Amino acid sequence: MARLEKIGCFGLTEPLVGSGTGGGLTTTAKRDGDTWILNGEKRWIGNATWCDVSIIWARDVADNQVRGFIIENKNTPGFSVDKIEHKIALKVVQNGHITMKDCRVADANRLTGGQGSFRDTARVLRMTRYFVGWEATGCQMGAYENALAYAQNRLQFGKPIGSFQMIQDLIARMLANITACQCMLLRLADLDDEGKMQDYHASLSKAFCTAKMRETVAWARELFGGNGIVVDYNVARFFADSEALYSYEGTFQMQNLIVGKAVTGLSAFV
Amino acid sequence: MARLEKIGCFGLTEPLVGSGTGGGLTTTAKRDGDTWILNGEKRWIGNATWCDVSIIWARDVADNQVRGFIIENKNTPGFSVDKIEHKIALKVVQNGHITMKDCRVADANRLTGGQGSFRDTARVLRMTRYFVGWEATGCQMGAYENALAYAQNRLQFGKPIGSFQMIQDLIARMLANITACQCMLLRLADLDDEGKMQDYHASLSKAFCTAKMRETVAWARELFGGNGIVVDYNVARFFADSEALYSYEGTFQMQNLIVGKAVTGLSAFV
Amino acid sequence: MARLEKIGCFGLTEPLVGSGTGGGLTTTAKRDGDTWILNGEKRWIGNATWCDVSIIWARDVADNQVRGFIIENKNTPGFSVDKIEHKIALKVVQNGHITMKDCRVADANRLTGGQGSFRDTARVLRMTRYFVGWEATGCQMGAYENALAYAQNRLQFGKPIGSFQMIQDLIARMLANITACQCMLLRLADLDDEGKMQDYHASLSKAFCTAKMRETVAWARELFGGNGIVVDYNVARFFADSEALYSYEGTFQMQNLIVGKAVTGLSAFV
Amino acid sequence: MARLEKIGCFGLTEPLVGSGTGGGLTTTAKRDGDTWILNGEKRWIGNATWCDVSIIWARDVADNQVRGFIIENKNTPGFSVDKIEHKIALKVVQNGHITMKDCRVADANRLTGGQGSFRDTARVLRMTRYFVGWEATGCQMGAYENALAYAQNRLQFGKPIGSFQMIQDLIARMLANITACQCMLLRLADLDDEGKMQDYHASLSKAFCTAKMRETVAWARELFGGNGIVVDYNVARFFADSEALYSYEGTFQMQNLIVGKAVTGLSAFV
Fold first, then answer.
1. Taking Cα atoms as reference points, which of D133, D234, D228 lies closest to residue D177?
2. How much is the ipTM here?
3. The whole model's pTM is what?
4. From CA B168, how far away is CA C152, in angstroms rounded?
5. Inter-chain CB proximity D244 and C229 less than 8 Å
6. Quick check: C1 pLDDT over 70?
7. Torsion angle of alpha carbons D154, D159, D161, D165, nearest 10°?
8. Of C29, C33, C31, whose CA–CA distance to C42 is shortest?
């Protein structure tokens, strides 16, 4: 995968296990000599519909530990993927619903790097949450740039709508949100370079940037009036996509509970 | 139309004239003996793609007054309608983009009831804005009912997510918004019955109910996590539809300026 | 008290027990023949500094039930009240910090009407929460009326500031909030007349009206610019007072948990 | 002043001229040989009640240009200062209401550095607006730190309130706001070091940081329940002070119009 010769996907979320991954995966792995037998379902797995290999996280029935396995999507009997249809957001990404029925995987395909355990998923989530911050910033920037241009060109009452106070208010608020997200992530990039980024840093920035994004894209969308609900003006797409960014890689609520635990020293997940 | 034997549509908004209808329509009407010749475009006209007759508002080139005309969609040379594609909201309604090239209408089809002038459109808008309040309330109710049921049934960490404080907070806020909208509109219905509903009443309720709707459907959508972005769970549709309701029949900004003018006695439209 | 010959106060909240009254009062009552001996502290008790009698809620050490007692403030040895100083809000009300050291109360002064138990406090809270809704509405109305007059009279750039879009936006939002609160409470008044008002109705309206009040008074305060921070212009007082209304008779969080429990059937208090 | 031997104040705002300083000061300066005669009033001038010298901005009646003058507070006949009373915010600062009746100032005390004109005030405002961003950040930090400690120590239902989801939600949102403000201002400090900070940078950060501060201190205040309205717990002071910070050195609305003009190229002040 690192040579980009094969495309992979990351199979953690399940139909019935989203926020509560820490509370128990339902996909099981059972050792049988040199192979493992996997059973269960994974949902929302980006790229799963067409990629070559999947990393599947499953609970070892022997010791209840979560282990990761690399599965060849196309050559593994019992492994099937359905494309999730009727999405309103992030249509550019295909998400798969994976079903595994007695899928056999060689023990050699068990992940043993890192700590070879569930804690590795936390390392992955830390990075993906940090990345979603950037996605959310880019999503806002796209909405803002389209909105600014529209405000400068769209005339009502014989004037560009950008010359009205209420429209300038929306534009200034958007730009402030974007600038705040950029500056926060720039600082987090430094922390990451220095090897100091913690889970709660990533959670705080994921929650903040996606929450501000939601405000920004809504203001941009409304600035377009009716034209804001057709995809042709771009802003409708940014508006809709932001809902996926807001929820994936951990909801706003979960991020806040991760931050809350870090600063109070008290856990409130359950 | 009143006998429901023919379906009509209301052609006021134009591609370049939305909020600024008071500042001048670009569609023109020119008298030619017993007929009028109409030229121009109308946009976002609900039902226009398939209905029988259209009410078209146009500016009389002779005296600059706005007049209404009834046009037979299918029998009027020069009259054509394109369906607006790529909508993200309110897909259940077909919106048309009407183009009129030298359309001839008999003078008998000119609207002469009411005041026979542009002021009649204000009467129509007052009622449609009031109705949008109810639509916005119904849209929230749909989102809420789906969200409540999901919260009671969806398990994470072995418990219904509805048993977590942060989810109850969302639910209680949703219900408060809905109750507020219902109570406001109930009172406005009384005012309407008494013949006392004014434009600014309708504007205030349209602005308030659609703004609260936007909050409510966003909370409902996020409560569903990833499942909130597929239409199958309903909430995605309420979420997307609400953007149309928020903007049509006059934007939030325009409603607030109508209210603002009524209470301050000062106009700030331009 | 009903003849208004004596003024009373309602002693439920304690220094260490606010939201968690249901979880246990620390003030104790111990029966001793025909009298009870009360020990403990009560805090935030409105009027306590000067009124004639206090209703004190305490936990019976014998059976852990909460019972109410009427105490004569001035004739009861061991009963003392300190005025709570340094308040920023609702200075018009004096709040007392009551200390009881071996206060003796005749058993005849034990409340036996109602259910003679802690459930009676819920009935009181239902009504006071409903009343706070009205207080919050009145507080907003005061802020709004002052703000509207200021907007019409204060000139900047040679024009009344009420003629600027951004100011009209604030005014229209304020008025919508107020109207929503009025309509909700009007409906609740009907429910109360019909004997149908439940605890969760009062909680929903208390949470909604005080949350909208907080928005409204903040918009009003900012409309006054610098003059909004001196009491002379009235709005500063409404702004500050609203914080007391927002928190007393149960916090926003507690009201939402009461509503949440009612609609989900799931308790999330602890 | 630069040697800190004398303390000064900055007299720009007037009783009737706040946001609209660009539209015309009412304080006048009239040349009379080697001296100038000043008449008018200044309001909200920090330190004015006790400082040594005041910088007064006035409109030259000869050419309508705004000029700055240094006045010795205590030795200038006709110069008087009243302390502004009844403030609810930033009581630590004394604000003066200055009245000037035929105050004579030597021409040597006219400011001639910089551009010797009204544009110099913009340079001052740029820096003070940037500084208010830091003040707003510090104000939030104070509120947050007190709130966090309270959440960890205050018990309800037998547990620290910081262990409840709704409280953790408030805490995480506060911390995200603070972090965003810190990161934005850190970046702005770099721009300032590089000599690249523009007026609209300062305006954007002033608007953003003070708006987030308002959210943060309100969340902190409500976390304290009733104790949040007495100054003894600190948070009430941060809550009240933030209103001064939000409005001074230019309102939220003015900052947004400055940003809006910079990015749209369209002025919407009037």
1. D133
2. 0.95
3. 0.96
4. 42
5. yes
6. no
7. 170
8. C29
